[in-house]
Write a structure and sequence with these properties.
Helices cover about 50% and strands about 10% of the residues. With about 350 residues, it is of the alpha/beta class. Strands 5-7-6 form a three-stranded antiparallel sheet, with helices on one face. A two-stranded parallel ribbon has the order 1-2. α1 crosses α2 (about 40-65), α3 (about 90-100) packs across α4 (about 120-130) and α9 runs antiparallel to α11 (about 300-310). It is globular and about 80 Å long. The two termini are about 35 Å apart. This is Monovalent cation/H+ antiporter subunit E.
């Protein structure tokens, strides 16, 4: 693990700068936690980040010794817990915002920092960080020889999850003859061997996934109903002699976090006639809406609430709607919604 040597390098650089002059030097050692309070994994991920910071505190005592420079301030903390972090740009935004807030002019990255899981992110992150007016470098520490990301990413939960999903999908398209069950198992095994190592950015939970699938089974009929209603509304608009459309691009700050939840909401919006998800960045969904009623439904938050129910449980579904949080053209309500408690995934 290179984080130990990265901390030692950062401490050495800060201590050298402090001893070379009378100016005050601040060293911030932070962990980036890409999670939110409604994410069922929040407690685990934030706990891991805090455990890492506890170890860093011990390393600091070792590296600074008994007589640290009086003009050297050291702070530790977790950043990113109040954002949805997906792309390298999102991580860079969180780091740059913290750097600006703390007047930091230099960022040192751990060479093994890879929050994307199996997706390499360090180099893209360095490029994104260059947007800021700060110096960016990767700690010049030796990286231990490791197996490839694909080899070490394969785990039993991934194999079981991909096999189960592939097998069920195959059977869904089959005629349920005895041969179909056999060929389905062979096909699912091949798919699992090829895709399991790269299928997830984090380890799937074999206890949470069945609950999410059960809630998804409730969500699908609901989505189909919403699509049918929206089809009738758009048909009325198209057939009306005056063609009463009111196209407009709107931005929705959605209270969903995690790749699967964000993708599900974005696709659900697109599948519903009258709205089209154009792009997603951070928590902002850029959406083209065809009519005022489509925007009313969008900011009413029914789809967002349903997606939260699928991925986070009943308690998360009770979060205020976008309109109640102060979004939408006709919203007079200013939201004061803090971070919700971690929802029980039931």
């Amino acid at each position: 693990m290179t984080v130990r040597n990265t901390v030692a390098y950062a401490v050495e650089q800060a201590e050298s700068a402090a001893r070379d002059g009378p100016q005050q030097v601040s060293l911030h050692l932070v962990a980036v936690a890409s999670t939110r309070a409604v994410d069922p994994d929040a407690q685990s991920e934030l706990g891991q980040a805090k455990d890492l910071l506890d170890r860093i505190e011990v390393w600091l005592d070792e590296d600074l010794g008994a007589d640290p420079p009086s003009n050297l301030d050291v702070e530790t903390g977790v950043i990113g817990a109040n954002r949805y972090l997906f792309s390298p740009g999102d991580y860079a935004d969180a780091i740059l915002a913290y750097a600006e807030e703390q007047n930091i002019d230099r960022v040192v990255l751990d060479p093994e920092f890879n929050p994307g899981g199996t997706t390499p992110m360090l180099r893209p992150l360095e490029v994104e960080l260059s947007r800021g007016d700060i110096e960016v470098e990767t700690a010049p520490v030796e990286r231990p020889a490791r197996s490839t990301a694909l080899a070490r990413a394969a785990t039993l939960p991934k194999y079981l999850t991909v096999f189960g999903a592939s097998y069920l999908f195959y059977l869904l398209l089959s005629s349920y003859k005895p041969l179909d069950f056999f060929t389905g198992a062979i096909t699912a095994t091949i798919v699992t061997a090829l895709l399991a190592p790269i299928a997830f950015s984090r380890q799937p939970s074999l206890t949470r996934i069945p609950k999410q699938l059960a809630r998804m089974a409730i969500y699908v009929p609901y989505l189909l109903k919403e699509i049918a209603v929206a089809n009738l509304e758009i048909a009325y608009v198209v057939l009306h002699p005056s063609l009463p459309i009111d196209p407009e691009m709107v931005e929705l700050e959605a209270a969903v976090w995690g790749d699967a939840a964000v993708t599900t909401l974005a696709n659900s919006i697109t599948l519903t006639p009258g709205t089209l998800t154009v792009s997603v960045s951070d928590q902002a969904f850029d959406i083209h809406s065809l009519t005022g009623s489509a925007r009313e439904d969008l900011f009413g938050g029914s789809l967002e609430r349903a997606v939260r129910f699928v991925f986070y449980g009943r308690e998360a579904a009770a979060i205020a709607s976008p309109r109640e949080r102060g979004q939408g053209d006709n919203s007079d309500t200013e939201s004061d919604v803090g971070e919700p408690e971690v929802a029980d995934d039931d």
